[in-house]
Amino acid sequence: xxxxxxxxxxxxxxxxxxxxxxxxxxxxxxxxxxxxxxxxxxxxxxxxxxxxxxxxxxxxxxxxxxxxxxxxxxxxxxxxxxxxxxxxxxxxxxxxxxxxxxxxxxxxxxxxxx
Amino acid sequence: xxxxxxxxxxxxxxxxxxxxxxxxxxxxxxxxxxxxxxxxxxxxxxxxxxxxxxxxxxxxxxxxxxxxxxxxxxxxxxxxxxxxxxxxxxxxxxxxxxxxxxxxxxxxxxxxxxxxxxxxxxxxxxxxxxxxxxxxxxxxxxxxxxxxxxxxxxxxxxxxxxxxxxxxxxxxxxxxxxxxxxxxxxxxxxxxxxxxxxxxxxxxxxxxxxxxxxxxxxxxxxxx
Lengths: 114, 224
Fold this sequence. Notes:
heterodimer; A: mainly alpha; 77% helix; flat; B: mainly alpha; 11 helices; 81% helix
């Protein structure tokens, strides 16, 4: 059971750094939302920063891979992402095609390297 | 065509949460932690940011700031969903659960489904939709966590690779305006540079710089 629950300390961190920062914005949206213009400069900036932070996270997973992904050499990780992106663009932005192609390239490369 | 689009969306949701479950396993979080984060945070990008920043050893405060910035996206989504649900008799407390379920998938599905649902039944409809999507997310979290624990290294790495792939393409798909496309491209390119500074705030630095440049270009184009 303790294996399932893990460290209670981590659960407190989840609440402080994960749950509260998210719910604040949802509740603010519920309470203050009515009078806000979706095209306002502030929201455009916020959206751009949020997108760039997410892009940073994608890059971080590839540059400093966690766990098992670290066993895949760097060029193969970037190559898989690039191949997936080409497939994504060629199929008129099909997420499924992009993910599938990226995975196939990574698995094929890993198999070929042995 | 419409039913295919809906399948793809819940497939992306499923794949995303398999990735999150696997990521949580490989960064040594407990399964209960992963499940609670799915149920209570219910925002894929925020969960990935939370897991990767905490695992890389930066402080709680930096991690919370990065998560907060990513969560601001939820604010305009909630603002946009609410008018579709309100009737004369709707109180704010009736909409709290709807606000909690609001994330990119639900937001897109509301635009698609709600016009076909009578207004007075919409809150109940969204509660059902939200529970369904959340169940998909929870199942996928368990599956991803278990797979990462039991698979060979090659397949475990394939599952971990799902996260960057699914997020890159779903974000690219949702980026219709120049500011979003630039923010995505610059954010990818600037992170490795920011990581060289090794400040512990890498994600925030590259995110704010890339996002602000993208916003600047957007304003500059608008003015011309």
